[in-house]
Amino acid sequence: MRNPSPLDFFLLTLLALIWSSAFFNIKIATYTYGPVTIAFLRVFFGCIPLLIICFLNKIKIEAFSKDWIWFASIGFINLVLPFFLIAYGIKNIQSNLAAILMASTPLSATILSHFFIKGEKINLLKSIGVLLGFCGIMFLFTDKILFNENNIWSALIILLASTFYVVGGVLTQKISNKSNENVTASILIWATIFLLPLSLIFEQPWNLNPRLDSTISLIYLGIFATGIAWLLRFYILKNNGLVFQAQVAYLIPLFGVILGFLFLQEEITSKVIISLIAVIIAIYIVKKGGKIKVV
């Protein structure tokens, strides 16, 4: 792996901006589209750049190979469920809150990895980070300005979505010998297969009268926040490694809060700022703890 150049830091920041922009765009998409249709069109449009890259680079897509059950399972758990749950939950809360709640993913991953991934045992530093992070999340729920009895469950649904991302990541270890492009294209294909009939049956999208802003946001979510972002992630992983790419986790909640304010004029309370700081510090502590090997 090469030492990061200014271009590498720019691409890392760009990746964080694209991923964090997903939250306010999902919010805009909910103005017209239902959560199942949002999830479907997101994976459908996300497939397109991945399929093009695999075709141009002659990368075999193994979605229907002997390992199809793994691709289908990961597609359902890592894409179908979280994409649907986020779209369902974000309708009733600010997008910046969703960005902070989803930032708990590295913290949940630390706990699950302890039990299911060899060499990823939890230690004191990781424990402190996880505890601080979840305290920050719990503190956010005490904000009576942004949370009430009508939307508290929506926030919990988004937390559940972050857990499915982690479970999907653990399952991905089962096919870690395959190329990233192949895996991502394959799980996107299976997610599309799962979501298409569900969208047609439960939401009948042909009956919609879509707003232009919702449609633009939905296309952006698929092509950029899903397809292009994953390709950018592959590039960073290949040239700079996982440790460098993982630093994107610090930027996503920060950018998510800023973008929600800029594009949707969402309120930023003192408790949002405190929770955001707590979560970012917690992720940093957990990652530092990851460098300490537990025998």
Secondary-structure topology with pairs:
Blueprint: H1 6-29, H2 35-56, H3 68-90, H4 95-102, H5 105-116, H6 124-140, H7 152-172, H8 180-202, H9 212-245, H10 248-264, H11 270-289
The structural class is mainly alpha
Order of helices and strands: HHHHHHHHHHH
Count the strands? 0
Give the total of domains. 1
Helical run tally: 11
- Which regions contain 5 or more consecutive residues with pLDDT less than 50? none
Question: How is the main sheet built?
Answer: none
Shape: globular
What can you tell me about this protein's structure?
The chain is mainly α and 295 residues long. It has one domain. Helices cover 75% and strands 0% of the residues. The chain has eleven helices and no strands. It has helices at 6-29, 35-56, 68-90, 95-102, 105-116, 124-140, 152-172, 180-202, 212-245, 248-264, 270-289. Helix 1 crosses helix 10. The protein starts with 5 loop residues before the first helix and ends in a 6-residue tail after the last helix. The mean pLDDT is 90.
